[in-house]
Amino acid sequence: MNNKIRFILKFERFIAILLNLFAVINILLLFITSIKTEQSLIDLYTNITIFSLILYLILRILRVGFSFVKLRDLFPDILFICIGLFVHDSERVFQFYLLGRQTFILIRKFALGSYKGEFLDKLSDNPAVFVLFSFFLVIFIGSLLLLLPSATVSGEDTSIIGALFTSTSATCVTGLIVYDTGTHFTIFGQLIILFLIQIGGLGIMTISSAFAIMLGQKMTLRNESLIQNVIGESNKIDMISLAKNIVIVTLAFEFLGAVIIFLTFKNTFLFSDKAIYYSIFHSISSFCNAGFSLFHNNFMDFRSNLNINFIITSLIIFGGIGFPVLVDIKKSFFKYFKISRLSLHSKIVLSSTIILLFLGTISFFIAEYNCEMKGFSMPDRIFASYFQSVTTRTAGFNTINNANLSKASVLISCILMYIGASPGSTGGGIKTTALVVIFVSVLAMFRGNKDVNVFKRKVSEESIYKVMALIAASITLISVMIFLLLLIEPFTFEQTVFEAFSAFGTVGLSMGITPFLSNLGKVVIVLLMYFGRVGPLTLIFAISESKKTKFTYIEEKISIG
Known about the structure:
Elements: H1 3-32, H2 39-64, H3 68-71, H4 75-86, H5 91-112, H6 118-125, H7 127-146, H8 160-171, H9 181-184, H10 187-202, H11 204-214, H12 221-231, H13 239-268, H14 272-287, H15 306-320, H16 323-336, H17 344-367, H18 378-391, H19 407-419, H20 432-447, E1 453-454, E2 457-458, H21 461-488, H22 493-504, H23 519-534, H24 536-544
Antiparallel strand pairs: 1-2
């Protein structure tokens, strides 16, 4: 490589750093500070940024040559340069694009690039640790952004613990809140929460890898292992195809959901732009099973609305069954038109989801018939029971007041919240597959069967051991955290237990005590949300990955029962 090429490459990297710097400055000028900036200064920074981007593209063209296969990736940059130059009042659009572009470049460089630093190299060697670290990093950045003055409406104050709690709740797609999302945060603050929900729902490694694939980057075996750990897929499948499908399926469901929700919200709001914004926000929050709502009483005002009940619950269910199942359904029905071709994992997830939804609906209908639902019409009772059965499985929306739930409903809710969604989904909990494995294992023991079978397939001993470890770790974690909450908080046993299970299952439902928790109590809930999202089993793998024994002890039987 001659000196001219080296100089061009160094200069290209220098320009990339300048672009990042200007992107940050422009976002600070336009969105973060509450001080009004002169339009001439904004125009100056925008023009400098556009010029730098044009120079960067010229350098890339000189380096890679005029090959359409390579240069077609420059089309988005050229499009937004034209928007920034020729479209009036387009500064914000250009700034948001540039910020996203530069963020992706950094992710690709440090997470997907061929060169990694020693620290990131060690992280990527252990997928479990990488998952733990990536979620922690997103939570930390989100907390800093939510502390910015422009993220909070005038007259309101966001504490450090409050910002940490909100960022964790959004990133872990939980939905527990200490501030009313629609009134405490500005549009900028709400967008921060929305981006955290989207990133947390899919996983930062999945997002960055999928976009890298779309831009022609190759995925290494290490990156495939990372994505495999994030989405919970254990089968040998095409991870590149799955990563693409995850992003495509997510955007498709969220777009379709927003369109259908808009049909209701356009009659609720006088201004169409607000209806569009609310539709997009709640569609993303629903599919990601986040439970964040811009309404002060969640969806209680829409209890009788068939459209809201149907589309919100549908988004929650599709987001909760997991991406591998959605891809498998697409392949089986649209390619082979046979349900029998579904994988064992898909069959377990779909059957358990239907059974849990049915049992949950019946249970809430009976438990709240003469309690919170007393005086409801029969359609409202059915809608509310079904909505509650769906949302307690990790979504966090509500159409009835959870503070008035009967003790029977509290018990049902805790069980459903503990079970949660399915592997590879946007939800939490121990997952439906773990429940089925435990159930069929107990059933096999009572029947005297040596093998654990389901859908004419044998469940491996390794899967059974993992489920047992998951159950033990999760129960231990929840028990310790409930004990701490009972020591430091003045609330009733039902309220405390409900809050703890909601946090661990990343559900977001509350009996009304979340804003009144002490700072120490909020930290406990933050830990429950974090470990509930990344999974107790992931934590076990992260700790014990390098401590595998290479020998076995002599077997000896013990008495049980």
